[in-house]
Specification:
With 243 residues, this protein is of the alpha/beta class. Helices cover 48% and strands 20% of the residues. A seven-stranded mixed sheet has the order 3-2-1-4-5-7-6, sandwiched between helices. The radius of gyration is 17 Å and the shape is globular. The termini are far apart. The structure holds S-adenosylmethionine. Belongs to the class I-like SAM-binding methyltransferase superfamily. MenG/UbiE family.
Length: 243
């Protein structure tokens, strides 16, 4: 591939992902709206509905970036609850924290720079964990899923929102064209960075499909796992339960 993505060593991949998100942080929200025609807001709203957060709950928004989910959870868990926005990238965390503070989302949100593969939290700590459009950037996904399973409370659930495999061929073709011909050029025009957006499109193609990710969640120790396709499988919401 363009980046030699399959062949790069894992430390190289981590470095590349870091460069991508340092580069796109300031334009990230704008690009999300433009590239998904605003539909990412619907995908995230559905994720929040499935999470069913209640006052007093502890929520981890992993790979939380600019904090769209964190902002919604902060309102839902209230003063007695807690939301941790964790991300490996300090540029994304800074943009996220500034945005949430400007919007008055304060008091029950903490920001932690952390790698999903080695979460710095106690066992059985969170009622809900979300990772939205983050897992595909993680080098060792099995290790990250284990780590999430460990810090989730019994009775809690993990929600993985991620690009997935479109369910019919026509959609797959249209989507490939859009990802590889249109998105990198939009990235060049709006964010001045074609390479980063090409990486993002490639990482989507490389990401495990619905059934593979479901099995990876079960292998990581979740007691039950399922998924819901959205937009014909362009995106899927995976749910993992710990009993
Ligand atoms: N969740 C946000 C959203 O849906 O808008 C941000 C998604 S953004 C596409 C992916 C995020 O994953 C970036 O902020 C990136 O820094 C973060 N990330 C990548 N690898 C990570 C890792 N190993 N651990 C934690 N966060 C990671």
């Amino acid at each position: 591939t363009h980046f030699g993505y399959q062949e790069v060593a894992s430390d190289k991949k981590a470095e590349m992902v870091a460069d991508v998100f340092h580069s796109v942080a300031s334009k990230y929200d704008l690009m999300n709206d433009v590239m998904s025609f605003g539909v990412h807001r619907y995908w995230k709203r559905f994720t929040i509905e499935c999470a069913a957060a209640r006052p007093g709950m502890k929520v981890l928004d992993l790979a939380g970036g600019t904090g769209d989910l964190t902002a919604k959870f902060s309102h839902l868990v209230g003063e007695t609850g807690e939301v941790v926005l964790a991300d490996i990238n300090d540029s994304m965390l800074k943009v996220g924290r500034a945005k949430l503070q400007d919007n008055g989302v304060v008091g029950n949100v903490n920001y932690v720079q952390a790698n999903a593969e080695a979460l710095p939290f106690p066992d059985n700590h969170f009622d809900i964990i979300t990772i939205a459009f983050g897992l595909r950037n993680v080098t060792d996904k099995a290790k990250a899923l284990h780590s999430m399973q460990r810090v989730l409370k019994p009775g809690g659930k993990l929600l993985v929102l991620e690009f997935s495999k479109p369910q019919n061929e026509l959609m797959q073709k249209a989507y490939d064209f859009y990802s590889f011909k249109i998105i990198p050029n939009m990235g060049a025009m709006i964010a001045g960075d074609k390479e980063s957006y090409l990486y993002l499109s490639e990482s989507i193609r490389m990401h495990p499909d619905q059934e593979t990710l479901k099995n990876m969640m079960l292998e990581a120790g979740f007691d039950q796992a399922d998924y819901v396709n959205m937009t014909n499988g362009v995106v899927a919401l995976h749910r993992g339960y710990k009993f």
